[in-house]
Amino acid sequence: MRLSRYFLPTMKETPSEAQIVSHRYMLRAGMIKQSSAGIYSWLPMGFKVLRKLENIVHEEQIRAGHVPMLMPTLQSADLWRESGRYDGYGEEMLRMQDRHGRDMLFSPTAEEMFTDVFRAHVNSYKDLPLTLYQIQWKFRDEIRPRFGVMRGREFFMKDGYNFDLTKEDALHAYNRHLVSYLRTYERMGLQAIPMRADSGPIGGDYTHEFLVLAETGESEVFYDSQITDLKFGDRAIDYDDVAQCQAVLEEFTSRYARTDETHEADEFAKVPEDRQRVARGIEVGQIFYFGTQYSESMGASVQDSEGNKVPVHMGSHGIGVSRLLGAIIEASHDDKGIIWPEGVTPFHVGILNMRAKDEACTEACDALYDSFKAIGLDPLYDDRDTGAGAKFADMDLIGLPWRITVGPRGLKNGVVELTCRRTGESEEMPDAQAVEKISQIYAKHRVTGL
Ligand code: 5CA
Question: How many helices (H) and strands (E) does the chain have?
């Protein structure tokens, strides 16, 4: 993309309404614009990162054997009356009526909707196990929407629902989700720690939240510092392998890690004192096993191998996709702007033309731009005829991990400058070598989506 043809409305001034750094940088980098409290327009670069996160989530869910689909955002209240949650959900549910006076609502989550599809089409244990999911907008009329996309009213969420014959199978689905989430967050350059949590209005006994440590996090967390040494890495996982998924779950959840809702001081005291940590975290996902709570109230059952009708065991599993943008920025920035991890960066590399009026510079930049496009990478070429200061400031603010600066002096010596956003280190090299280096860096960060 050439910046002169893109829409990237960056701002120098810090917007006064933004209290935390991710919100400030998302506004300043022209990624979002508030439309009303807790509701945002996604400007092109914000939308681009949101799509990347969505695609990573799809890839990892499909890898785990889960099946994508899409539900409506507006749902009939009758379904929610069946499960008994219509009255119980409270003021967070946005309710409305259609022209015929029928009660409708904007989906805050979708247990009822998925259970309804399941019961309409699945009758036999032979169709199990089954995990269906969607990535769709949700609405919760939060009493205090704040921190930009972190606590919005409208937000983008992946929600998955497993249907299993037995509790044992459903717990395997739970473990499978935990494993796939660990992989997902790591690909986004994040460390998200599974912590034992409270189930809230979704219900259920087994639940973990995934927390990204950050000073601005809304939850207080208590954990054993050994947990932060765990890496999922490149390990090969067979998601059908019950023992392997169980082993990963145990590895990542056996040490003390709780949110304030489930914290127990005497249990925490058993962690060696030098490893006890109290910090803050951002909840970027949650998994639940809730048994037959919804399948019983809504009549979602299958015939087992002996012909008996039994309610299915279910769980639901969510990732806050739009919240993740904020969480990633909270975890990765400096005082000049965002520092995108390679796996989620909106553009792979920035090309800075230091003298747009110089023919040699423009030719060299055009050639670099074409080379990156030819190998399937996505460069952002700052071809604007503006001062160098403004170009550097914008590039630092939007935080592409790599930048190539092309100036007349370097070109005379046959070199361009390659700079790493994170370390600030620069290296001069011929343009072909810079392209090769960037290509290698991104070889393991390709995202395809569905
Ligand atoms: N039905 C279950 C799992 S699919 C569910 O709704 N879980 S949840 O309530 O924990 O939401 C899933 C994730 O959505 C949360 O972990 C959080 O990352 C994100 N989320 C929840 N509320 C908001 C909000 N107001 N703004 C942004 N993200 C949110």
Answer: 14, 23
